[in-house]
Here is the input.
Amino acid sequence: MEHTFAIILAGGAGTRFWPASRQLRPKQFLPLGPDPDEPLLRATVRRILPLCPPERILIATGAHLAAATRDLFPEIPAANILAEPVARNTAPCIGWATRVIARRDPDATVMVFPADHAVVDEDAFRDAISEAISLAHRDAIATIGLQPTRPETGYGYIELGETIGHQSFEVKRFVEKPNHERALEFFEGGRHEAAARGQEGEALADIFPILPSISIDHGVIERAPRLAVVRGDFGWNDVGSWQSAWELAPKDATGNALSSGVIAVQSQDNLVRDLRTDGRPRVIALVGVEGLVVVETDDALLILPRERAQDVRLVVDELKRRGGHSV
Amino acid sequence: MEHTFAIILAGGAGTRFWPASRQLRPKQFLPLGPDPDEPLLRATVRRILPLCPPERILIATGAHLAAATRDLFPEIPAANILAEPVARNTAPCIGWATRVIARRDPDATVMVFPADHAVVDEDAFRDAISEAISLAHRDAIATIGLQPTRPETGYGYIELGETIGHQSFEVKRFVEKPNHERALEFFEGGRHEAAARGQEGEALADIFPILPSISIDHGVIERAPRLAVVRGDFGWNDVGSWQSAWELAPKDATGNALSSGVIAVQSQDNLVRDLRTDGRPRVIALVGVEGLVVVETDDALLILPRERAQDVRLVVDELKRRGGHSV
Here is the structure.
């Protein structure tokens, strides 16, 4: 009997959400999606539970994050949390997880998800995944493509071929991250889907260090004989910065996304996240400010304009230069 | 033998420095002047010590602030800290303190100072005070006037009469806070000095509550037969808002006045005050912001543009409306 399994790639590191994200609490552990109380990784698991029971969900993560990941999912068997000893991008990691699954069910269909993306319309998301599963049953490797809403140069593109299902197409060609002119051409042509690529992975003490660090896209998908793409239209966001977090967050009538206890007077379009954990009552007050990101943790406070959200790395660089403060 | 005594009016309350200022830690206890480590009240005392020994300095303050005031000045006899049971503006308070002084030295010359103003050039300040003392020795009530640097409508004005000393003049007339046209006329005419008026006072359980609440200006000075004014030119600032605090604070080359541990990347003209007292290491990071006031205390964080510093009262009003948080 053939079963569907899910592999969730939860090895992400990164500093784009400093000071909320840290080495021991990277982005997937943060509530950055539409629900301000739900970590992205938990939302990822919840989203696929109607398609896949917990005992067939595997989560691949870094060794240093394995305990925190197990704690987050008491319903998932501990053996399903795969702790990668070193990071080797997504291909070795998916290879390992697929081998674990094959031992349990040699005919399994395997879904692979990033842990730290956000989805607004979860029913539409599951519809797309179901269509991808049916394509996989016809021996294709199926990916999800998102119709670009702007000439984005940050992702790879997929050139669509023949229609092969309700929302699905043959893959004519993968195109690396394009320059702006090319992205504009793809965007206006309407025959290219943006592919969210380049998920970080991490990885087994003996094997992983000698494996090439390569993504599943380059390592496998682009070389596969039968490829299909399902057009996804479910409000996808890879939550790449505090700006994305503001876009996804529930906001009041003045465009503010505020933690409880925040007072905003004559202020608009701000993101304020009070992530302190000591439980002491405090107030954060804004007067007359617009478009700011304000993030407070137990040991840091960040203030920057939303439009400069990518520049949080400048702070992280400065902290590394100074030393002495955890990044 | 005639001695010079000082009365320091340290009963000030007010919310313009929320969240730093609180009922039990009003403005005069905060380091808002040129020295970021010295509370305004302590600077006021230090400034006059060359003119007046500690045993002849009296500090009038509210009963609820008496203990904190004594703690700040171990060198001043405890009997010199006058605790007013209720606030009755400056006239009753100065009347009481003057009576205390008269019992010790019926011929004393008395200086009266607000506790919470800042002075940049302390030698020039003491020169002006010395000239005022010499005028007092000639039986005048002498006040210090500041030459206006703009047509300010927030203070009263003094019209200058005949020159009677190096920097001093007879007082021709006091003028209440003028409207803008009148202030402009005074400013351009050059015969008016701005008088920093309206110091708050507080005041003895039996007497004070039935005394009229009136300032020394209205209650006494404007009715006195012999009045003189000394032109002060010593970089005076009444530290009326976080904006004033920024103006007074030492700043780096990019106009930032920062507490230690603050990282400012591509940011300028900000005032950042980390007033937390728990001693835990923390970092405050700004990226790409300009002209902000950021004040963090143990239980509150305030963020507002410097130019809107007066609007901190909007937060205080909102907190009072909500209840439950100390203002």
Notes: Chain B has two domains: 4-237, 242-322. The radius of gyration of chain B is 20 Å. Residues 198-203 of chain B have pLDDT under 50 and may be disordered. The CA atoms of residues 138 and 226 of chain B lie 9 Å apart.
